[in-house]
Amino acid sequence: MNKDKIIEKNIKEKLEKERVSYGVDVNVRCINGHVTLYGIVDNLSEKNHAQKIAESVEGVKKVENNITIAIDSKITDRDIKQGVLRNLQNSKFHEEIGELGVDATDGTVTLYGKINNAQQEIESISQAAQAMGVKSVISKLELNKEHKIDNVSLVNLVVQKLSRYDLSLPDLVITANNGTVTLSGYVNNLKEKELANEAAESVNGVKKVINHIKIREKS
């Protein structure tokens, strides 16, 4: 079995484990490490999740996501908007950020309102993407004014948050620019890299995290 067939097999096996969340099969084609996904799923969240699964497989260089979202012809933009609003009310951050504004046009959802950190924006987008009929989500969410702080103070807050976890802070470099935090340096494994990313996203005042952290090579 050549490398491309092995990649296809590995992606399909990972997708198979997630089958409970998929309405219809997702098919995979791989040529020289370039993967194309096609098939039909129920919502944007499933489409995005299938891509993340494919991207996580060793040997994959690029993923083209041609998966189609099944759209019931009876679903209107009003239905989509109501579905998104219901999902947002179930968000774990709903009490913190309150009601968000939602527009829906031809299946494209736009979110408006104020958030405190990147984690809340990511969660809001994720909840919107799970609503039936949503083809794409555009975020126009903005940071609350009270959390717009200078770059030095933001870096200090991120450092404080990271210090609560078992990470080697001297090996990490943290910078901030207008709410965007960049992480670089070294950690021991992928779990630590993801942990640092999630911790930074949860800091009030952080709108976006760019993660350039590298995994330290084992000697």
From TrEMBL:
InterPro entries documented for this protein: BON_dom (IPR007055), Lipoprotein_DolP (IPR051686)
Pfam families attached to this UniProt entry: BON
Domain BON: 3-71, 76-145, 150-217
Protein name in the entry: Transport-associated protein
Lineage per the UniProt record: Bacteria, Bacillati, Bacillota, Clostridia, Thermoanaerobacterales
